Amino acid sequence: MSPRAHTPLKPASTAPEQIRNFCIIAHIDHGKSTLADRMLQITGIVDDRSMRAQYLDRMDIERERGITIKSQAVRMPWEVDGVTYALNMIDTPGHVDFTYEVSRSLAACEGAILLVDAAQGIEAQTLANLYLAMENDLTIIPVLNKIDLPAADPEKYAKELASLIGGSPDDVLRVSGKTGVGVDVLLDEVVANIPHPVGNASAPARAMIFDSVYDAYRGVITYVRVVDGALKPRERIQMMSTKAAHELLEIGVSSPEPVPSQGLGVGEVGYLITGVKDVRQSKVGDTVTNLQKPATQALAGYVDPKPMVFSGLYPIDGSDYPVLREALDKLKLSDASLNYEPETSVALGFGFRCGFLGLLHLEIITERLEREFGLDLIATAPSVPYEVTTEDGKTAEVTNPSEYPTGKIKSVSEPVVKVAILTPKDYVGTIMELCQSRRGNLLGMDYLGEERVEMRYTMPLGEIVFDFFDHLKSRTQGYASLDYEPCGEQEADLVKVDILLQGEQVDAFSAIVHKDKAYSYGVLMTERLKKLIPRQQFEVPIQAAIGARIIARETISAIRKDVLAKCYGGDITRKRKLLEKQKEGKKRMKMVGRVEVPQEAFIAALQGDDEVKKK
Amino acid sequence: MNSPLRTLSAYIHVPYCSVRCGYCDFNTYTGSELRGAKRSDFVQHVGLEIAHARRELSATSDDRTLDTVFFGGGTPTILPASDIAAVLDLLRDSFGFSADAEITVEANPDTVDREYFDALRASGVTRVSLGMQSSVPHVLRTLDRTHDPVRIPGLVEQARASGVAVSVDVIYGTPGESIDDWQRTLDALGDLQLDHVSAYALIVEDGTALARKIKRGEIAAPDPDLHAEMYELADERFELMGLSWYEVSNWSRSIETQSRHNLAYWRNHDWWGFGAGAHSHIGDRRWWNIKHPAAYGQAVSRGVSPQLGEEVPTEAQRSLEHTMLGLRIREGIPLSMLTPRARLKVAELISTGLLDGIAAIEGTGRLTLRGRLLADTVIRALTD
Questions:
Q1: What is the pLDDT of residues B59-98, one digit of tens each?
Q2: What is the number of structural domains in chain B?
């Protein structure tokens, strides 16, 4: 084992030749955080006593779900053959929703550890990130983790990895993040195989932002990788996309707690603090330069992240609306890709239309709102951005079915994604069936080893956001994994289906669906609502309509009797309590026209719990 | 606060049955469930509570005589008639009866005959409420009722011959009961020349054998729409028989033949409930007794109150009770007692056919036929 380095190198005066920048690419649960923890321990920057599981994942949700939402960079000293190196480990988010963030983290590295669970093999998401890494010309070090598990099959998966990235199965390292076996060898490999960074030390400063995090005490903490030149404390810096200028209040490295330094030089990775309070002023992918001596050309690859999935978020208790507003304002500070605007729904009251990078992003934000701010929320069915062109040639982006233009529609275009599904070969048939029913186009299929198949499709994103995951998982007993990335738009025969209660449109249930699916959506929703809405004093028709054309109809017949005829031997208290309970229930009713609908009915209809369980 | 306008009643709960009917969730026990409690102790135990009640009421200088007495159950007529007589003697000695006191006993057809009626009459009973339930054998079987419906007309005749007024209890909406079945029961009632009928919808109560059978799918759940149809049919037939509704589940030939005891509940008057599990209401307090006869017997034998729980309803609860109870009877509620907000709802309730418009113009909230069936809706609307 290599000894721990006795004197770590000083930031700002470290030669690029002694720097290694790398990240770890892994699927959720494949043990990335545990391996990172072990590295912190072995390199000695976190003492054994203060080690806590998954040190790098700060947020509770991350810790509980075992996934990393926000990346960070940690500088670790490591000595090989008497030479001390600075290893910068850049933690990347592991999920498809954050592809852009991943790509920027990768762009800050020269190499990547491809970490795969020795009992499960590679998953679709990991494949996607591996492609990204290879596109960025990173050196890949393949590693099998969890070799201590009884179910581990390193031989099999070493072959799988070798066939993917080339090389021999014998080159695949075997480690256990849990016990620490093989981690020192891995660090030696990082030094030996990953190229050192290269840059022009005398050129104007250029540093790429690969993450920015909001901290309640210090404001925004920006993580950068210096490409050319150097950044120094107290100097004025400029963000090249926005031209905004700030003073560098603090600059330093994480090891893993922030340690201020005299600056950062070529190839170095660290953090900046300027006192700004909003992560939007420090955008991932942007280039930081010196205000007095600015670079002329920004680093390539900056993109403004675009929301792909939209959903209305409503507090179940209407009086929580201000709390929700405040909570979103706070989350926005740390999440540049979250956007929202106020929205009113007949059924759900006041809420916000929110745009997300993807479904997981939606889920994480909803969960944080509920957990960190104590809110009870309903989310409307996720929708994607459609481009609707009317007969008179006007084009509008529609992210909410309620904004769908009335009148003649000339064309509608919808976002399309490239989908990769990894599955044991037995499920290929059932997955093809599912994808076909979701308007998928098979692009190709490849065997990874003997058991597993990668299936590639193009599919409308709108088909994926609507319970596709649930179906894929339930039809493959949880074995299939999925990844997707945007790949343009296509024109499609889409219509807006409205749901009407006694002639009144219930906005929360309107949906933009393919023409062939309109009828089944209408039948599904009218049947659901018939079961969920209590009978009223009058007959209530429930209709599904495209424009003025009714495509499905159910009727809730009028209630005729609700009186409790018995006297219970003078037990008036019991009778009164029953009524009090009924009255309580009435308070939670929402009015749609004259129809009283319990809030639970809206929620249940939106979630469709019944049907999913049955399938 | 014993309002002089409020009458005082006594309810005596007889918590015994020979078998438990599948739909029943009342506080009653068959022989094997009595766990050491003995029917033969009934008079002694209730007697102790009567003495206790006398002391309590005297302490507040409440010297009202009893306006009505009602023996309910369970099966009061499972007791020898002499037990009922003995309890009546104790009540008479302790409280006295009003001049025209109404004294009712619920009678199970299996347990009564001419001799029994004679004995009841001799002890002061003025009225029996005969549990006919249905005249259709398969309906009676579903209800676990063992009597032969053919005996009913004879029993009604015998009771009358003994000099007691007769009311008949029926149940509608039993699972499996068709409209035709219900018609047959109504026909049978028509032949009896009655002055008073009570008709109750079958309600499936949690924890009963019937509820379990429905849950297991062995019996279909009652259909509320069918209930409504049966109720409307009954109301029409009773009107033809000369009986008018005076409470949601009760019809009578005249004011004199109404059950005053029943009305005392709906008018929110005072009553003391004696016996295991009985409920009481005196002044602003409601309370209820220990449920099991054995535990009840132990409490009264030790000289302590058999009370298990009590409540003093808040002003808002009082007002809800007042509307809830008052709306169920034909005399209705004075609209002036409603909050301004609730009064705004009256017009809508008239237009949707739930409240009687003419009564409303006269200042009374009174349910229409449709309103009686949707009484809970009306009550909720008027107590917002």
A1: 999 999 999 999 998 999 999 999 999 999 999 999 999 9
A2: 2
On whether both B254 and B345 belong to a single domain, the answer is: no
Contacts of A348 (CB under 8 A, 6+ apart): A312, A314, A378, A380, A508, A590, A602
Mean pLDDT of chain B: 94
Query: Inter-chain contact A569–B13, Cβ cutoff 8 Å?
Result: yes
Cross-chain CB nearest to B376 (options A569, A571, A582)? A582
On whether both B97 and B204 belong to a single domain, the answer is: yes
> Would residue B41 count as lying in a domain?
yes
How far B110 CA sits from the closest chain A CA (Å)? 22
Q: Are residues B141 and B260 in the same domain?
A: yes
Residue B344 and residue B262 share a domain: no
| B94-140 residue pLDDT tens | 999 999 999 999 999 999 999 999 999 999 999 999 999 999 999 99
Instruction: Tell how strand A540-546 and strand A589-592 pair up.
Output: unpaired
**Structure letter (DSSP) for residue A609:** H
In this structure, the number of other CB atoms found within 10 A of the CB of residue B312 comes to 11
- Nearest to residue A155, comparing CAs of A115, A118, A183, A130? A118
Q: Is A571 on the interface with B (CB under 8 A)?
A: yes
A538 to chain B: which residues are within 8 Å by CB?
Answer: 352
Asked if omega into A460 is within 30° of 0 (cis), the reply is no
Domain membership flag for residue B188: yes
Quote the CA–CA distance of A382 and B49 in Å, as a whole number: 66
- Asked whether the predicted pLDDT for residue B1 surpasses 60, the reply is no
Nearest-by-CA chain A residue for B375: A563
The answer for A 509-538 residues in CB contact with B (under 8 A) is 537-538
B278: chain A residues, CB-CB within 8 Å: 569-570
Query: Domain containing B186 — which CATH number?
Result: 3.20.20.70
Sign (positive or negative) of CA dihedral A348, A352, A357, A360: negative
Of B11, B203, B379, the CB nearest to A570: B11
Q: Do B173 and B68 lie in a common domain?
A: yes
Whole-number CA gyration radius for chain A: 28
Pairwise CB contact (< 8 Å): A569 & B352: no
Q: Point out the residue among B228, B248, B281 whose CB comes nearest to the CB of A572.
A: B281
Mark whether B258 and B341 lie in a shared domain. no
Of A538, A557, A570, which has the smallest distance from its Cβ to B273's Cβ? A570
Record the tokens describing residue A575, joined without a space. Answer: 């009778």
Mean predicted confidence (pLDDT) in A61-86: 71
In this structure, the strands spanning A173-174 and A139-145 are: parallel
| Residues of the domain holding B344 | 335-383
